[in-house]
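Q: We require from you a single protein entry containing the residue sequence and its fold in token form, and nothing else.
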Amino acid sequence: MGNFIIVIPIICFCFVFPISKIKAETDTITHFQSLSKNQTLVSKNGEFELGFFALDNSTNHYYLGIWYKKIPGQTIVWVANREKPATNPNFVLLIINNTTNNTLLLSHNNNVVWSVSVARKPKNPVLQLLDSGNLVLREQNNDDENEEKNYVWQSFDYPGDTLLPGMKLGKDLRTGFVRRLTAWKNKKDPSPGTFNWEMDVTKWPEPMQRIGSMKQFSSGPWIGVDYGSKPTRKNPSTFEYVYFSNKDEVYFSFYLLNNNSVSTRMVLDQATYRRLYLVWINSDQEWLVYNSLPRVFCERYGVCGPNSNCDWDKSACDCLRGFRPNHTGGCLRDKPLNCESDGFVKYVKMKVPDTSNCLYLNQSMNLVECRDKCLRNCSCVAYANSDIRGEGSGCALWFGDLNDLRTLPDAGQDLYIRVPASELETKNGRKIKIGIAVGVTIGVLCGLVLVFFLVRKGRTRSILKDRSKEEQEEDPKVPLYDLSVIVSSTDNFSHKNKLGEGGFGSVFKGTLENGQRIAVKRLSSGSGQGIKEFKNEIALIAKLQHRNLVKLQGYCIQNEEKLLIYEYMPNKSLDFFIFDQTKKRVLDWNTRFNIILGIAKGLLYLHQDSRHRVIHRDLKASNVLLDDEMNPKISDFGLARILGGDQTTEITRCVVGTYGYIAPEYAIDGNFSVKSDVFSFGVLLLEIVSGKKNRGDQHQNQNTNLIEQAWNLWIEGRPLDLISEDFKESCNGSEALRCIHISFLCLQQHPHDRPSMSFVIMMLDSEICLPQPKQPALFVGEYYSSLNKSNLISGNELSMSILEAR
């Protein structure tokens, strides 16, 4: 029979040796002692404490755990019985040492709460809490208490949601034993959630974060000096990051270098799906988050799809050379490889691809030998050094699709990707052409330019027509979901999963089988959006790819259901924060200004940088969603319109949008353009700065809307009085004043007086002199009452895209 660690009630002790409780502060108990509910073990230097605790003052759920002794607030770093709390206060911790087993005891009503097998039996066992936070079972007469080889059992082998300095994240290759982190379900429940982190033991191991079984973030493999992704760290000299690998085990760990008195830990946070690096700042008496992963768009695993590279600086995806976009995501090869005549394109500052389909060769091989090895294998698609120190050494080869590629701003390594010979010829041909062009005389060059413009003048319109026709004929391949999958993911559209409601229907939160969270927009049968608008939204969003636009994941048309599946935004929509008296305090000025910039960049993409000129026509606070980093994403394209060719305006007899955001020329004459969106942006800008709705009962004068109130303060010389009191302390006065000034420029009565979104961004992001605004359009209260409200399809200010945080 094996040896176990368990807990049993104090009233059930029946042993052949006496048991005594500890009487003073100590770091150990022997098999003659016990630890009850109101007693603790304290490590030798007082760093950590072991004892029993309840969450939220619960009286019927008790846990055995370890926390920091010197830090207030009982920061828990380890829980023994995280999946099975004790429900009775009559429990005790002790060691049984007899002829059959060694056991730590913790149970109630004769029910075992927690048990752990031990490999061997010490003669005189002692349980000790170390200053590292490690709880160990060892031989009492062994003086070397910090030697891991002498431990019969240790808590460091069974981490919860926290990695402490010296703990290992990895795998014992002899036994298959895995040391992984799993987040708490929530702050009130320490049982394992879906967010986890472990070492992926491939041919070239790499730490991997997952949500359920879905990969979420990879640090990349160890490349000799650091892990391959090398995220920027605020205090890189404070810690030593370790990678160890041999035939017996592979693991990651970290240590403090110089200041052992600083408390630090890594924690998995289920609420945000991030790994947090935390340091205790004693002077401030709080934990400082000095890093969190993933942080940016490009760090999300496989965000660009196979064979596509994510540029860190641009937060944008590009196909690798020799590949073209695939409508289902990622990129496909333009031309097949030839094997005999292929070559390689060099990419620098790269995080190498996922190593699950990588062959890791010996460390003595140089880069030339590695290239030859890949070239001789027709299935090899990329190669790189496995150690970048010095001139580089070792060899890693990849086969199949290349996943999770990204260009890093200040680190990474060289990666060589296989391409057909034609791609290499194209590159060389371009170099030759450039050389010839440089050598051409000024006179000849001018002649060529003149000919170019003469030809272009006659052909431009034809080219634009051909291109427009070609793009219109494209059929974007958006994934089609089966209704049963969506019904299952939303629990049959249950009320508990309902996120919001708007003019076209309701939005529900869903979770797919792989753990991916989605937002499902369910169009109501009586909504104004029919099949035409539905297909318009699918076709439009599928072609729009920008970090400040919400991403369409798929759709479903089945039976009577019309469903759109979007990426899930955990922080709901902007109106959820700025118009709520309590939640508006969450958004300080820097966050608000970043949201303003993000919305502006999203609109600029729609108006100018996308393949089509897109007018949103329903920009408002409830249609701006916020991701887990409070980055804005414009959503809800059901009312959007595409302008073709040189077209800049269009007229409609059906005015759609939301009361309070619609431009005057659109509301009155049905004339909409990109400047209509600029007007809506101006309204939104004032709402973000003031924390007030453009229309609503919060204004003292019911006949005065927000625009008029702001303009009155402007002409009175008191524009900063508009700023919400909730963030005045964090507010940058000059930036806020600039935003108010820009809002008036966007709210001009005539469209031609409003700036373009490119100029808006320039004004927001620089100190250029701003033009003086004329009186903005103050028509809202005067004219909207005469409009036929049935024409305002989105008259309800509640949005179907309001998402609820988990």
Observations:
- DSSP finds 13 helices and 47 strands in the chain.
- The chain has five domains: 1-158, 173-179+190-295, 319-422, 489-567, 574-791.
- The CA atoms of residues 456 and 519 lie 47 Å apart.
